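Dear colleagues,

As part of the handover before I leave the project, I'm documenting each prediction I ran so the next person doesn't have to rerun anything. This entry is a single chain, and its sequence is reproduced below.
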Amino acid sequence: MTSSPDGSGITGTRTDPHAQSRQARRQPILLHSMSVFREIFELIFANRSISTVVEIGVESGQVSGIYAELGASAVYGVDPRPDDGLRATFAANDALHLVAKASPGVLAELPVADLYVLDGDHNYAVVHEELSWILRNAPDAVVLMHDVLWPCSRRDLYYEPSPLSADDKLPSSDDGPTVWHDELTPAGFVGAGAFTSALQAGGERNGVMTAVEDALAGTDWSFTLIPAVFGLGVSLRSGSPAAAELVAALRPYSGSALLAAMENNRIALYTRVLEQQFEAAARIEDSAALVETIAAQRKEIEQLTGRLRRRPVTGRLSPLLARLLR
């Protein structure tokens, strides 16, 4: 397979024209994993000395392994409810350390890190407390924050059951957001019991990006937005080592109107698919209900027919009744 001009290697050849199609169908319909940001991680490791990583919100452990592969000697993966697969992945790599506790409280128990990755509970209260602790205690760290764009940018998401107090949690719903209107809908980006979304978007103390803005306000920490795959924010103190060089290295991504347009198109298409899936499921339910109604009516007709057959016939039958009794 030949490389395209940007080196992505997806153009295929004249004898293998379907290389891009094969790669496309191997991807999930919804890209959400932090693993897609590998080239961003590579830039960070190339410009900063990264020995210790604290990753809040661990997926399958694949991304944790990427940090170790790029040179981190210790990666602390924070996940309050790890499954057996995640435990096995961490146990197989000496550089990975699984921390089965909740953030942000656990941060003070861990070594101060060179790189923090915030991808846990996507709401104002948690993200603001996590980031505020890092700013106070790890002044030379790089901080990555996922989900700073739609749907969590200005609307809280709460993994359920939520550990937050009533004061830190906004009224929420099992319905989810969509690109196609501002209100929540059962045909939107729903959690199916795993998470709920705040009923209203915007305002104070609501959303990941709002938490980031409030935590960074009045500090000398910069914020760089990479507008792809729900948005990745990169923060570091302006006076920290190689800060200017790293921000410059990220600029082709952060300044890309093309990436932003593609992200908007991606979420529009995905939420349209969700809407169509919801409508299709509703039609299936309607069809099943119709089948049940027809079956019940058929049974009722058969019962009525049986009664008529058992009654003595007097006089001449109507053509319809005669057909029913045949």
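The beta strands are 52-56, 74-78, 96-99, 115-118, 142-146, 157-159, 172-173, 195-198, 221-226, 232-237. The mean pLDDT is 91.

All the best with the project,
I.
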